[in-house]
C-alpha cells in the first residue's frame, strides 16, 4: 500500500529562520503531489501542487517545494518564516493521472514560529 | 461563491448512539470524501464517492457508512458510536476537470466527542 511519510512531527523555529519540511512517499509510478496547510481552528487549504513539468513548484505565501523523483521526495521550503506561518502542514500524494484516485496524506508536521 | 459546509461543527454523543454528520457542497463536484483527523495519524480516508449512487470504503471504514443520493450531499453515519470514533471529521470534494485535477476542497470540520 502506498504510504506518505513526514519525518518531522513538530518543528519550532524563530521568525526569519529558514524552513524545510520533509515528505517521502512509497509509490513508484506517476504521482501528483500536494502540500496542504491547516491554520489553527481552520480547515485545510492548498498551499501548492505538482502535476508535471518544472520540479520546483512555487505556492502561496512564499512557499516552494521540490519534487525529486529519484528520492521519492517532495520537501516544502520557505527561506524566512513568519509568526503567521504557525500551522500544521500536510503532504499528500495521488497516484496516476486519474482525478478519481484519492489522496493519501502524511501524518502532518506542526510548525510553531516564535516571534 | 461555491463552498462546502459541514454540520454540526461540534457534537457530543454517548456510546452506542447513531450519529450523522452532514456534508453539502455547491461546487457541483463529482468526487466527495470523508476523512478523520487524529493526532499522529494525519488524515485518514473513511469513505469516498465518485458520483451519485457510488460509494467506496477507505482506509478506516469500519463503523461508518455513507450514501450519495444527489451530487451535493454525502452524509456520514456512525451506526453505533464508539469512543474510538472521537475525532475531527473533514469532508472534501474534487472535480474531474483538468483545471482542478485532483485538488481537494475541504469543509471546516466537525468535532465529534463520544463519551
Description:
The complex is a heterodimer of chains A (115) and B (115). Chain A is 0% helix and 50% strand. Chain A is mostly beta strands. In chain A, strand 10 (87-95) and strand 11 form a beta hairpin. By secondary structure, chain B is mainly β. Chain B has strands at 4-7, 10-13, 19-25, 31-38, 42-51, 54-57, 64-66, 76-78, 87-94, 105-106, 110-114. In chain B, strands 2, 4, 5, 6, 9, 10 and 11 form a seven-stranded mixed sheet that branches. A four-stranded antiparallel sheet of chain B has the order 1-3-8-7, with no helix packed on it. Chain B starts with a strand and ends with a strand. The mean pLDDT of chain B is 91. The chains are: A mainly beta (115), B mainly beta (115). At the A-B interface, strand 5, strand 6, strand 10 and strand 11 of A face strand 4, strand 5 and strand 9 of B.
Q: Order of helices and strands of chain B, N to C?
A: EEEEEEEEEEE
- Described by its quaternary structure, the protein is heterodimer
In round numbers, the mean pLDDT of chain B is 91
What would you call the structural class of chain A? mainly beta
Cα(first) to Cα(last) distance of chain A is 41 Å
Strand count of chain A: 12
Helical content of chain A stands at under 10%
Write a brief caption for the model.
Chain A is mainly β and 115 residues long. Chain A has strands spanning 4-5, 10-14, 19-21, 24-25, 31-38, 45-50, 56-58, 64-68, 73-78, 87-95, 103-105, 109-114.
Give the SSE map.
The complex is a heterodimer of chains A (115) and B (115).
Chain A: E1 4-5, E2 10-14, E3 19-21, E4 24-25, E5 31-38, E6 45-50, E7 56-58, E8 64-68, E9 73-78, E10 87-95, E11 103-105, E12 109-114
Parallel strand pairs in A: 2-12
Antiparallel strand pairs in A: 1-4, 3-9, 5-6, 5-10, 7-8, 8-9, 10-11, 10-12
Chain B: E1 4-7, E2 10-13, E3 19-25, E4 31-38, E5 42-51, E6 54-57, E7 64-66, E8 76-78, E9 87-94, E10 105-106, E11 110-114
Amino acid at each position: 500500500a502506498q504510504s506518505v511519510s513526514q519525518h518531522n512531527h513538530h518543528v519550532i523555529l524563530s521568525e526569519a529562520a529558514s524552513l524545510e519540511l520533509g515528505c517521502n512517499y512509497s509509490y513508484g509510478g506517476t504521482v501528483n503531489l500536494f502540500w496542504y496547510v491547516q491554520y489553527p481552528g481552520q480547515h485545510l487549504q492548498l498551499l501548492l501542487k505538482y502535476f508535471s513539468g518544472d520540479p520546483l513548484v512555487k505556492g502561496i505565501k512564499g512557499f516552494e517545494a521540490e519534487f525529486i523523483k529519484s528520492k521519492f521526495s517532495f520537501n516544502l521550503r520557505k527561506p524566512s518564516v513568519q509568526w503567521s506561518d504557525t500551522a500544521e502542514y500536510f503532504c499528500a500524494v495521488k497516484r496516476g493521472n486519474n482525478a478519481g484516485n484519492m489522496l493519501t496524506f502524511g501524518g502532518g508536521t506542526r510548525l510553531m514560529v516564535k516571534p | 461563491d461555491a463552498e462546502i459546509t459541514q454540520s454540526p461543527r461540534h457534537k457530543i454523543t454517548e456510546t452506542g448512539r447513531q450519529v450523522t454528520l452532514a456534508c453539502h457542497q455547491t461546487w457541483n463536484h463529482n468526487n466527495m470524501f470523508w476523512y478523520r483527523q487524529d493526532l499522529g495519524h494525519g488524515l485518514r480516508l473513511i469513505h469516498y464517492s465518485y458520483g451519485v449512487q457510488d460509494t467506496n470504503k477507505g482506509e478506516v471504514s469500519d463503523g461508518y457508512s455513507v450514501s450519495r443520493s444527489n451530487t451535493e450531499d454525502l452524509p456520514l453515519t456512525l451506526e453505533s458510536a464508539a469512543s474510538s470514533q472521537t475525532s475531527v471529521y473533514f469532508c472534501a470534494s474534487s472535480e474531474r476537470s483538468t483545471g482542478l485535477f485532483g485538488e481537494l476542497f475541504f469543509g471546516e470540520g466537525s468535532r465529534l466527542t463520544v463519551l
